[in-house]
Design goal:
This protein has about 170 residues and is α+β, with helices and mostly antiparallel strands. Helix content is about 15%, strand content about 30%. The chain is built from two helices and six strands; from the N terminus they run αββββββα. It is flat, with a radius of gyration of 39 Å. The chain starts with a helix and ends in a 36-residue tail after the last helix.
């Protein structure tokens, strides 16, 4: 009887293992295989002494991008100063327009969709204007050309008591 139960348990285990799917098949997600054409493309590669360039393009789904720039002499370096804009429609249907420029001061973007800080309340602005200047101007230090004699101090030893009492 005991060997019969062991045989049945072994057969059930083998059947469960054999019935398990042997190949991993990930769930298929819908993809967008729609081709989006480039309907307009203009490109002027860097040319001339200031390396001026420009390009722009527009896609079939309404994305528009344009950029122009040129090398700008700043000291011994010639960083590129560029400006441009892009426009598209967000998945929620909201038109997004981004204007930007980049130069030696960094990248600066503006657009109605970008967050902006709230205005400073009028009371706080007046308080800031009336605050005294917190940074003090450094005062010139009086300098004496006469040499100062060095001073030497001799340390006095502290009294030592073996038991911590004086």
């Amino acid at each position: 009887m005991n060997s019969l139960l062991c045989s049945l348990a072994l057969a059930a285990t083998v059947a469960l293992v054999a019935a398990r799917p042997q190949v991993y098949s990930p769930q298929a997600y819908p993809t967008q295989d729609k081709f989006i054409p480039i309907v307009r493309y203009d490109n002027s590669p860097p040319a001339g002494p200031n390396q001026a360039y420009s390009f722009s393009f527009e896609t079939g789904n309404g994305i528009q991008v344009q950029e122009q720039g040129q090398a700008k002499q700043v000291g011994n370096e010639a960083p590129v100063a560029a400006q441009g804009a892009s426009a598209y429609t967000s998945p929620e249907g909201v038109p997004i327009t981004l204007q930007w420029y980049a130069d030696e001061t960094g990248f600066h973007a503006s657009g109605a969709h970008l967050p902006t800080p709230p205005p400073i309340p009028e009371e706080i602005a007046r308080a800031i204007a009336t605050l005294p200047k917190l940074v003090e101007e450094p005062q010139p230090i009086a300098y004496s050309a006469a040499p100062v004699a060095p001073q030497y101090y001799t340390p006095t030893p502290a009294p030592y008591n073996r038991y911590g009492r004086k």
